[in-house]
Specification:
8 helices, mainly alpha
Length: 241
């Protein structure tokens, strides 16, 4: 009986592992596999841009409402500490704000009216002097088109033309749109302030439990800082006039 020797045993062949391609080749392969801008992607981008353009007024009103709510949040908290219901406190702040604007308008309107009358009375004479100076100028631009432009301005101030019907309609539409926007702003702000606690809870539920306290603290800090800065700017505007 023949015993096989160790020399007759052969080890299995080791499979050859191909080395990975070089760096530039890897980059080239990745770029080849990267999907480009497909027609469907382009269509979705254009559709999203169109939707944003259509709802831009709503987005602007929502943003302004959040900013206005941030401004009146501190006075609202003071009223709530006096056991005034939140809804009543919001309406009280609305009434005080509108009343303040009306009072400022009544105080400023006489000064603006005086300035307009002074301008209408004095501007033609000053423009006449400037016109005579330009007509004697050696500059062809001043003595030609400039002199004619001053003459038209003087006639427009002394005898202003009646506004066309389209301008009156546009003014009426603009005033109506402004009133509607202001009412929508107040309504959105009211509902945001009434449901802000619920909205905050919904947002915090989407955050990891260990991060909720930090997110809530950041929310309060941002609201306090932005609200304080906006209230300061409004106060400066009222002081400076």
């Amino acid at each position: 009986m023949q015993i096989p020797s160790h020399t007759d045993q052969r080890l299995p062949a080791t499979p050859q592992v191909s080395s990975p391609p070089a760096g530039p080749e890897v980059v080239a392969m990745a770029m080849e596999r990267r999907p480009g801008l497909t027609p469907l992607t382009l269509f979705l981008v254009i559709l999203a841009a169109w939707v944003l353009l259509q709802v831009q007024l709503v987005l602007i009103l929502a943003l302004l409402s959040i900013l206005f709510a941030t401004v009146i949040e501190r006075p609202l908290q003071h009223l709530e500490r006096r056991h005034i219901p939140r809804g009543v406190a919001i309406l009280f702040i609305y009434a005080a704000s509108i009343g303040g604007l009306i009072l400022v308008a009544f105080l400023v309107a006489p000064a603006i009216s005086d300035q307009v009358r002074t301008f209408v009375a004095e501007a033609p004479g000053q423009l006449r002097e400037l016109e005579r100076s330009w007509s004697r100028s050696r500059n062809p631009f001043l003595s030609g088109p400039g002199d004619q432009l001053l003459e038209r301005a003087i006639r427009a101030i002394e005898s202003p033309p009646a506004p066309p019907q389209e301008a009156a309609l546009g003014l009426l539409t603009g005033v109506g749109g402004g009133i509607f926007g202001a009412l929508a702003l107040l309504a959105i702000t009211f509902y945001y302030l009434m449901e802000k606690a619920l909205l905050r809870r919904l947002v915090l539920l989407e955050v990891r439990p260990e991060s909720r306290a930090r997110v809530n603290r950041i929310w309060d800090d941002v609201e306090a800082k932005v609200g304080g800065w906006l209230r300061g700017q409004l106060t400066l505007c009222l002081i400076i006039g």
